[in-house]
Write a structure and sequence with these properties.
Elements (H helix, E strand, L loop, with lengths): L1 H12 L13 H112 L3 H18 L5 H15 L6 H14 L25 H16 L8 H4 L3 H23 L3 H18 L5 H14 L11 H16 L3
Protein name: Uroporphyrin-3 C-methyltransferase
Keywords: Coiled coil
Pfam families: HemX
Length: 348
């Protein structure tokens, strides 16, 4: 098509010869020329449009390439930051693992120390409870048992271990049981017995002849020396021989040495009664008081105020009842021993 356009241009550009005349162009030729010109213009227009599109695409591609480069740079920077964060996270993870290891070690050491302390305290508590149980069962000393249980309760509160809560509950129940027991004044009864023992030496014996003072002998009137002499002689004679009716002759035959041992026997009976009181032995307590009362009745002057007061005190003491059932501390002891066994079985 380019050659045809060149030939046509050459044809049109050649000036017509004056001597030679060409015939008038035919319409078909004109139409063909016009079509050819239109095709050339359309082709030029398309070429220009293509150039514009290509330029625009080039600019867009360059913009996209620039943006891609910028995105790549940003991605690379983000990757670098991500790697830095990963390194920091790895470092922090290492430090955290190290800290957790140290914490686990410290926790294990603390648990070991606490467990050893718990075992030591539980051993002391078991000894205290055993002593309190002995005081309660052998001597019936409720006060001493309560003091021991309360000290155990205080130590458990200071230790404050969750696994010892059952032990604290068992000790609290035993304390409530002891506080609800009927009260026996062991100290007061012991003091009364000690007072009676101290007063035995002051009690008059039947052999001492403790009686109301006799009326003085009549005196002879003044001036009758013979009658006065005869009266004094008669009074002296009556003092030599005295006839009495005795329903307990053995009480009048005591020698001073036997009187001493008699008083000591009464004291021993009262001391045995105090021992039976501490042991809560009701039968022995009443038997010793009854024996001491028999001694007073048979060998001491029953008409003396001291003897009557002592006999009344013995009767009052014999009415005291020592047969009070006492609870045991088996629950607290079992709880403490179970806690010690469990503490020994756990390894740190």
């Amino acid at each position: 098509m380019t050659q045809e356009q060149d030939s046509l241009s050459a044809a049109f550009s050649t000036p017509p010869s004056r001597a030679r005349r060409f015939p008038a162009p035919s319409p078909a030729l004109v139409v063909a020329v016009l079509a050819l010109l239109s095709s050339g213009g359309l082709w030029l227009y398309q070429q220009q449009s293509n150039d514009k599109v290509q330029a625009q695409l080039g600019r867009q591609l360059a913009s996209y390439a620039q943006k891609a480069d910028e995105a790549g740079a940003r991605e690379q920077a983000a990757t670098e930051r991500l790697r830095a964060l990963e390194r920091e996270i790895a470092l922090l993870s290492g430090k955290q693992a190290e800290a957790q290891g140290q914490q686990a070690t410290l926790t294990a050491l603390y648990e070991a120390l606490t467990r050893n302390e718990t075992q030591r305290v539980l051993a002391e508590l078991e000894q205290t409870l055993s002593f309190a149980s002995q005081q309660l069962q052998l001597a019936g000393n409720v006060s001493a048992a309560l003091v021991g249980l309360e000290s155990v309760q205080d130590k458990l509160a200071q230790l404050d271990r969750p696994e010892l809560i059952p032990v604290r509950k068992a000790v609290a129940r035993d304390i409530d049981k002891l506080k609800s027991q009927p009260y026996l004044d062991v100290v007061g009864i012991s003091a009364k017995l000690d007072t009676l023992v101290a007063g035995i030496d002051k009690l008059p014996l039947a052999v001492d002849g403790y009686r109301q003072p006799q009326a003085s002998a009549p005196t002879a009137p003044e001036g009758h020396w013979f009658k006065r002499l005869a009266l004094e002689a008669w009074n002296d004679l009556k003092q030599l021989v005295r006839i009495r009716e005795m329903d307990k002759p053995e009480a009048m035959l005591l020698t001073p040495e036997q009187s001493f041992f008699l008083r000591e026997n009464v004291k021993l009976r009262l001391l045995d009664a105090r021992t039976a009181l501490l042991l809560r032995n009701d039968g022995a307590f009443r038997a010793d008081l009854s024996a001491a009362g028999d001694y007073l009745k048979n060998y001491f002057d029953g008409s003396a105020p001291q003897t009557r007061s002592t006999a009344a005190s013995l009767k009052e003491l014999s009415e005291e009842s020592l047969a009070i059932p006492l609870p045991s501390l088996a629950e607290s002891l079992a709880a403490v021993r179970g806690a010690r066994t469990e503490a020994k079985g756990v390894r740190p």
